[in-house]
């Protein structure tokens, strides 16, 4: 094994995926600004290929250029979203340990839950301990309570939330910055729609992550398997008592579908870029992108459904419809697919 230059290789790891992703984006942007477009290479689940990665790291280039290579799943990642074969990862890890990185390469490995028994992790851990002045392994820990509150204050500074509202939002969502960012954007959308200030009572009314997950699953079924969607509606209806939270979840998810559709139609399919732009979890965006053909085919249905759920909200809040009619009406609209 070679003794690698500690300034040329890093491992980003641990549970705070949001902060890790944002730090990667920050470094990639800085590197690109300094070294030009095409100097940053990202290999993740969507394009992970052993031969291509090895060529990018060690291959000879006609024009020598500085390269930042962001490499997911090395060392072997035990996180469940890792779908790359272990032998492929370990083979590439052996290459990195066996050959010195070219002087123009900066390598950032990303492994959320690395297998600490493996040779690569032990190798990079040894490098880290031998270079305390230049930490090679960077741990991204979950935020503490006061850090979560500060995060909300910073992300939602345009909403003028008071301390009680911030406490309510953090209490409902807890330690998930992706969801906090998504809920803040939903509140921003609500404020623009109603032109009212956001209080802790408003947050109580529309921020229900369990309902959001149900709505997301239901919309997915409506688009892909209408019979399963009907069964799922029957299973949900006894729990769906708060029409306002349900309807705002529909508005929110349909808005996200339409935004993603716009990216697809402009040939932009980078899930991480889209996730950052629309403030949504990259895993969710990636799953939606896999259904690109269905989204394009059902575009008019999605647009019409979005208009209808906005109309339902207006009609109930202005006395033109009864809250008790909500489930009947939304089921009728959903099944007009």
CATH domain class name of the largest domain: Alpha Beta
Shape: elongated
How big a fraction of the residues is strand?
5-15%
Number of domains: 3
Q: What's the CATH H-level homologous superfamily of the largest domain?
A: P-loop containing nucleotide triphosphate hydrolases
What is Rg? 23 Å
Query: Main β-sheet, in a few words?
Result: 5 strands, parallel
Annotated CATH architecture of the largest domain = 3-Layer(aba) Sandwich
CATH topology of the largest domain: Rossmann fold
Order of helices and strands: EHEHEHEHEHHHHHHHHHHHH
* Helix-strand category: alpha/beta
Average pLDDT figure:
86
> Helical segment tally?
16
How many strands? 5
How do the strands of the widest beta sheet line up side by side?
2-3-4-1-5
Helix-strand blueprint:
Layout: E1 9-13, H1 17-35, E2 40-43, H2 50-58, E3 67-72, H3 86-98, E4 105-111, H4 119-130, E5 137-139, H5 145-155, H6 163-173, H7 177-194, H8 200-206, H9 209-224, H10 226-236, H11 243-265, H12 271-278, H13 282-289, H14 292-297, H15 299-317, H16 326-334
Helix pairs in contact: 5-7, 6-8, 9-10, 9-11, 11-15, 12-13, 15-16
Explain this structure to me?
The longest helix is centred in the C-terminal third of the chain and has 23 residues, at 243-265. The termini are far apart. A five-stranded parallel sheet has the order 2-3-4-1-5, sandwiched between helices. It has helices at 17-35, 50-58, 86-98, 119-130, 145-155, 163-173, 177-194, 200-206, 209-224, 226-236, 243-265, 271-278, 282-289, 292-297, 299-317, 326-334; strands at residues 9-13, 40-43, 67-72, 105-111, 137-139. Helix 3 links the parallel strand 3 and strand 4 (105-111). It contains 16 helices and five strands. Helix content is 59%, strand content 7%. The protein has three domains: 9-139, Rossmann fold; 145-206; 209-334, Zinc Finger, Delta Prime, domain 3, CATH 1.20.272.10.
């Amino acid at each position: 094994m070679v003794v690698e230059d500690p300034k040329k290789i890093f491992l980003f790891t641990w549970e705070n995926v949001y902060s890790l992703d944002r730090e990667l984006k920050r470094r990639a942007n800085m590197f690109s600004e300094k070294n030009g477009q095409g100097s940053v290479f990202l290999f993740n689940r969507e394009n992970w290929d052993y031969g291509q990665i090895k060529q990018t790291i060690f291959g000879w280039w006609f024009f020598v250029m500085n390269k930042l290579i962001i490499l997911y799943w090395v060392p072997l990642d035990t996180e469940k979203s890792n779908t790359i074969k272990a032998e492929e990862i370990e083979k590439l890890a052996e290459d990195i340990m066996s050959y010195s990185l070219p002087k123009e390469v900066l390598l950032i490995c990303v492994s959320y839950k690395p297998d600490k028994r493996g040779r690569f992790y032990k190798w990079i851990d040894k490098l880290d301990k031998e270079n305390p002045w230049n930490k090679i392994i960077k741990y991204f820990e979950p935020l503490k309570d006061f850090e979560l509150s500060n995060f909300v204050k910073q992300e939602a500074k345009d909403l003028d939330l008071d301390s009680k509202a911030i406490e309510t939002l953090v209490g409902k969502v807890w330690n998930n910055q992706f969801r906090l960012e998504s809920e803040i954007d939903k509140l921003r959308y609500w404020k623009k729609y109603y032109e009212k200030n956001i209080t802790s009572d408003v947050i109580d009314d529309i921020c229900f992550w369990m309902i959001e997950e149900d709505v997301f699953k239901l919309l997915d079924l409506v688009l892909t398997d209408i019979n399963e969607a009907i069964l799922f509606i029957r299973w949900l209806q006894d729990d769906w008592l708060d029409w306002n939270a349900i309807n705002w979840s529909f508005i929110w998810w349909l808005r996200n579908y339409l935004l993603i559709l716009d990216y697809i139609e402009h040939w932009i399919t980078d899930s991480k870029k889209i996730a950052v732009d629309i403030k949504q979890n990259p895993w969710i965006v990636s799953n939606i992108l896999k259904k690109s053909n269905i989204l394009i085919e059902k575009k008019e249905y999605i647009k019409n459904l979005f208009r209808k759920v906005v109309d339902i909200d207006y009609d109930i809040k202005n006395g033109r419809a009864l809250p008790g009619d909500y489930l009947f009406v939304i089921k009728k609209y959903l099944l007009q697919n």
